[in-house]
Design goal:
Layout: H1 10-20, E1 27-35, H2 42-45, H3 51-54, H4 56-67, E2 71-79, H5 84-88, E3 94-101, E4 106-112, E5 120-127, E6 130-132
Parallel strand pairs: 1-4
Antiparallel strand pairs: 1-5, 2-3, 3-4, 5-6
Length: 134
């Protein structure tokens, strides 16, 4: 659990408590943005296992921790548009994933190795009564 530190972040924990208390019930769509400020070095890229093993596990954990159910359907797309060297290693630098659970609730995860404006980690839940953000 130490590796999945976002579930213990006070803002994320407050967010989860808010919608579990019924603030936006019925949950419909969880959106996660996970954009790094700059890509890792190519030397690091050779050993980190790729975006889906290095960064995205945190986002999958956030989705599962906040939705409470395992997905029934998963879809993913990714490209190496910003860092072709990563693509040559079989990795991606930009990705989007969707997951749908048995209740029909959707989680969308967007990842990028580089956001020109800086590191950006966001979370938003859309529900029948509105939406909330941490």
């Amino acid at each position: 659990m130490i590796g999945f530190n976002r579930r213990f972040d006070r803002h994320f924990a407050k967010f989860k408590k808010g919608f579990l208390d019924g603030a936006i019930w019925k949950r419909e769509m969880l959106s996660i943005w996970s954009f790094d400020s700059a890509p890792q070095t190519i030397e690091y890229a050779r050993s980190f296992g790729g975006l889906y093993r290095d960064t995205m596990p945190h986002d999958f954990d956030t989705a599962l921790n906040n939705k409470g159910e395992l997905p029934q359907t998963i879809g993913a797309v990714g490209t190496s548009i910003m860092e072709p060297e990563f693509g040559a290693l079989g990795d991606v630098d930009t990705a989007a994933d969707t997951m749908i659970n048995a209740k029909g609730q959707i989680a969308v995860i967007k990842n990028s190795r580089r956001a020109g404006y800086g590191c950006d980690k966001r979370l938003e839940m859309l529900g029948s009564q509105g939406f909330c953000r941490p």
